[in-house]
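Lab notes, practical 5.
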Amino acid sequence: MPNGKVGIDFGLIKGNEGNVGVTLSGDANQVYSISLMKFYPSENYQEIIRQQLLPEDTIKLIAGHCARDGYGTAENTGKNEFYEVVLAAGFVYAEASVDEEDVSTASASVLGSTAFNFYRSRPTQRMVAMGCRDL
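Output from the prediction step:
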């Protein structure tokens, strides 16, 4: 993963696979989505999410095989999948994708990353724009 330095001091260091960056999106009253970026790519999305849940919580794949990227304009290389997660407090929706970066670029992490975006409501418009297939 990047060492956090710029210019000639930029370098890569080995990080803990559990390290994650967090971004909250919302307003002064509530959070609408939470984005987690985990260093190192892994397509085992459902298993990664499952490990964070209680035994009584459930996770179900609802869409995948998305044809276009998140902007709906280019080919999807992120292998996006969408899940419905049922918790004791209610439903939450998750989108997972990988980014396998070219390690020869100065901004790349060692191998890439895995992103998880959690939404309060079903991201139907996003799934349609990406041309995802309901499962």
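Observations recorded by the TA: The CA atoms of residues 95 and 111 lie 20 Å apart. The two ends are 34 Å apart (CA to CA).
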